[in-house]
Each structure stands twice: as C-alpha cells, then as structure tokens.
Amino acid sequence: MDTKALIAAYYAAFNAGRTDEMLTYLHDQIEHHVNEGQIRRGKELFREFNAHMTASYKEVLTDIVIFANEAGDRAAAEFVVNGTYLQTDEGLPEAKGQTYVLPAGTFFTIRDGKIARLTTYYNLADWTQQVSA
C-alpha cells in the first residue's frame, strides 16, 4: 500500500469509529505527538488515547487532503474536524454536547509500510472558544 493509500485507510477507519483497525496501520513503535500534550509511544498508549477520545468526543474528518514526499516516508494531511463534545475532558470546559468545526493537520513518518509517527496540530484556543460560546 502506498503512503497516501495508507493514510486514507487510517482516516477511513477513524471516520467509521473503527479504532482497532486504526491500530493495524501503525508501526509497533508508533510515536504519537498530541497537540498540547505528551508524546505517547507504542500501540497500547495509542489504544488508551483512542478510548479516552471516543468517550469524550464524536468526530468526523472532512475535506481531507493528503500529501506525501516522493520517497513515501514523510506525509501530511490537512482536514476539518467536525465534532461533538460528549464528556468533560479534564482541564477543559464542561461538555454539554457542544458542536465544533476546527481546521487541523497531521504530519506522518512512514517506516516499514506503517505509520511510525503522528503529529497532530489544531488551534486549542479556537476549539475552547467554540465549546464555551
């Protein structure tokens, strides 16, 4: 599977809520660099992150555009997060079912045909303003 197809499959699984399938696209030594957070290393910590996110947020990504270098070992994706804030996340505003639309992007490193690094960026202040309105 080429890099763009790998990332498209990863996001298709995300949008369908198939978090276990998402793990199949990840390298065993995945490094997950979370916006405003710590680096999570390994599939188990990624699985725990997904469980937390699934409980707190319902999100679908739209307008996904995937870019990859010629070697296929580096890539990026830009998209729009369309979400609902389901359960209060510690340190963030209270969840009351608020909806939000947030531009975001992710950078990837690909190794051995799998995603070895995910670095996601979005504007937390924008999100906070949307769910606090």
UniProtKB/TrEMBL annotation:
<dbReference type="InterPro" id="IPR032710">
    <property type="entry name" value="NTF2-like_dom_sf"/>
</dbReference>
<protein>
    <submittedName>
        <fullName>Isopropylmalate/homocitrate/citramalate synthase</fullName>
    </submittedName>
</protein>
<dbReference type="InterPro" id="IPR037401">
    <property type="entry name" value="SnoaL-like"/>
</dbReference>
<feature type="domain" description="SnoaL-like">
    <location>
        <begin position="8"/>
        <end position="117"/>
    </location>
</feature>
<dbReference type="InterPro" id="IPR011721">
    <property type="entry name" value="CHP02096"/>
</dbReference>
<dbReference type="Pfam" id="PF12680">
    <property type="entry name" value="SnoaL_2"/>
</dbReference>
